[in-house]
Amino acid sequence: MDEYMPVTMNKDEFLANNTNKQQFINMLSGHLQKKNCQTYHAPGDTDLLIVQKAVESATTTNTVLIGDDTDLLILLIYHANLKSHNLFFTPEPKKSTKKPRVWNIKAVKQQLGPSVCTHILFIHAIAGLTYHQLHWNSYGSSDAPARQTAAA
Question: Quick check: 39 and 15 in contact, CB under 8 A?
Answer without folding.
Answer: no
